[in-house]
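Today's session is about reading a structure prediction critically. Students often jump straight to the picture, but the first step is always the sequence itself: look for stretches that repeat, for charged clusters, for runs of hydrophobic residues. Only then move on to the predicted structure, which in these notes is written as discrete structure tokens rather than atom positions. Here is the chain we will use throughout the hour.
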Amino acid sequence: MFIRSKFTELITEPASGDYEGAEACMHTCSTQRGTIGNECRLPFLMLLCVLVPLTSQAPGQTYAPPPPPEQPSDYGKVVIENYSSNTGLGPVVFDHWLHRSKFTCRLCHVDLGFAMQANGTGIAASSIREGRYCGACHDGKRLFEGKTIFGSCSAESNGKECNRCHSLGKRGARKYHYWAFTSKFPKGVYSVDWEAAESEGRIKPVDSLEGIPVKRVPIPTADDFSIKADLPWVHPILFSHEKHARWNGCELCHREIFPAAPKKTVQNSMFLHIEGRYCGACHGKVAFPLNNCSQCHPRGSI
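Below is the predicted structure for this chain, in token form.
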């Protein structure tokens, strides 16, 4: 009861301009280190950071995002089962953490046409053999970092490589393991700090593939800007077009996720992000979780 009452007090009572309580929460949740992969191990504080009164819906109600998976290796994991159940191979497990360390999001979701929703792309063995989707890389011929990328669904493999993709529930089927693979990457609140890894040169995501003739019209990167939060005790958001353009380009966000509209006309909000709209299309699924408050609402941005 004490914890709940103190949370309610901090959420509903701070005076306009009083950032002390919220600032302490954001700072703690962004710097506290736990015992597993530098993950923030303070679930109540993580929830406190993002509890938002829905005054327009029902006064006094709150809406908070679910916590990320216990294991960071499961964050962004996509289980693909379009046709696998008919083959006896089992579902495919796609690890975002492995692929995002090598390729930009834009390359896969724009040039190669992968949908942003799990099982939203009609991936089949036949389309892979034609060089589409996964087959753009996994053809047994393409080289990456001096190594040949194994061919998936190819007749030449004779089924030897099937378990590397169709690995759900199969021990020892995966070649790369999260903790060993990311051991030298900079860590943040929730395991790998991907932005820092890219900035430090630990990873160099590829943004184009030879043989994929996608014509791109250069789009000037828009300026960074600040978004004022609706709550007086929440720091403004500092949105960087430059940082997002490195991974997404402009095409991934505009116009399907964010409409091409004048500033301040798109009424996005925290609860819409939690529902998977706007920023929530990536954050809370693959990009850093929405629970990491100060990553978007940094201290000193007021």
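Discussion point for the tutorial: The mean pLDDT is 78.
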